[in-house]
């Protein structure tokens, strides 16, 4: 038993010099390779071959890290793009709203310019007023303007827009007035055909699209396309303002009167600003105007 133990110990001590010898041999070989590589180019081909062999391994080892980095960058880029798209959408919406507002302001300025231009052509004194309300009853064609007794507005005063006669004031408060449009069924305007001076009466039809011409004989000198202007008869409306353009003339068998309609010159259902007409016959001070306190 002891002999076997001694043999094992001897074997252990005998192997140690072999290990040291191997290490020494590798060290000497490494030193030789280093010197050869440093002073000569003999190992360039070997190095290139080894690099070619090892490169796929390096690439494969680095692939997971590169993939994670790419995914991280792609995710960050996508989030940034989504945020940028959202910001651009909001900016686009804001710019569209501003553009629409600018268009509305431009159109309003153009309408005011046309309105003031028509006022300059008129020989009567006029005041610009703004529509601030309409009657919700579809059977009643009335609007409210922002001028009242303090501005000299009076009952029966004519109202124009840039194209023609709109109606007349029927009620006045201190700061506002109610206007009856010429399209109201209860409203009538004495008119005459500009071409032939034929005198007629234009009555509201209940629709802003047309007026009815009352008691027009089948043989009357009137044609589609004729301009109708206010005649001034009755003293309610000043003479010479455009009222409507004839669009239909139909003779009726068995009836002495023709069916005649005309399209109003004024934009009765559009526009925001109107003109109050002051003629020499109605230049009164505000204190002389009757006004309805119920409108204030």
What does it look like?
- This protein has 296 residues and is α+β, with helices and mostly antiparallel strands.
- It has a domain at 125-295: Beta Barrel (Thrombin, subunit H), CATH 2.40.10.
- It contains 2 helices and 12 strands.
- The protein has a 6-stranded antiparallel β-barrel. A 6-stranded antiparallel beta barrel has the order 6-7-8-11-10-9.
- Strand 3 and strand 4 form a beta hairpin.
- The longest helix has 78 residues, at 44-121.
- The model is unreliable at 284-291 (pLDDT under 50).
Keyphrases for this structure?
about 40% helix; single chain; Thrombin, subunit H; alpha+beta; 6-stranded antiparallel beta barrel; 12 strands
Short structural summary:
With 296 residues, this protein is α+β, with helices and mostly antiparallel strands.
Q: Give the overall form.
A: rod-shaped
Distance between the termini: 131 Å
Total of DSSP H or I helical runs spanning 4+ residues:
2
Kindly provide the name of the CATH class of the domain at 125-295.
Answer: Mainly Beta
Low-confidence stretches: 284-291
User: Would you tell me the structural class of the helices and strands?
Assistant: alpha+beta
The description of the largest β-sheet is: 6 strands, antiparallel, barrel
**CATH 2nd-level architecture of the domain at 125-295:** Beta Barrel
Radius of gyration: 50 Å
CATH level-four homologous superfamily name of the domain at 125-295: Rod shape-determining protein MreC, domain 1
Summarize model confidence as the mean pLDDT. 80
Query: SSE string, helix = H, strand = E?
Result: HHEEEEEEEEEEEE
The counted number of beta strands is 12
Helix content, binned percent: 25-40%
Strand order of the largest sheet: 1-2-5-4-3-12
CATH fold naming of the domain at 125-295? Thrombin, subunit H
Proportion of strand residues? 25-35%
